[in-house]
Backbone:
């Protein structure tokens, strides 16, 4: 959870974007680099999946939910990041 939070909170970018380096994409996922083609490519892929008999996966129930004490860590991280950004902006002005 910590690694995923840090990746998202710091807006980390995979280089190159076509590799599943950050762990959010699998090798079978497709990436559309051209903004003008996103909708068209998505529709084409969805139709391919339907024709292939795609069934959504069964919803998992074995994922533990962290309690308030675990949630405190990312909340503290966000607080510290906001303070650092606010401090940097104040110093610049």
Residues:
């Amino acid at each position: 959870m910590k690694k995923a939070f840090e990746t998202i909170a710091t807006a980390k970018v995979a280089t190159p974007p076509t590799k599943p380096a950050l762990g959010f994409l699998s090798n079978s996922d497709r990436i559309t680099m051209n903004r003008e083609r996103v909708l068209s490519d998505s529709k084409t892929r969805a139709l391919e999946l339907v024709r292939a008999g795609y069934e959504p996966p069964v919803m998992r129930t074995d994922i533990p939910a962290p309690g308030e004490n675990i949630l405190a860590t990312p909340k503290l991280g966000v607080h510290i990041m906001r303070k650092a950004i606010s401090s940097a902006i104040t110093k610049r002005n």
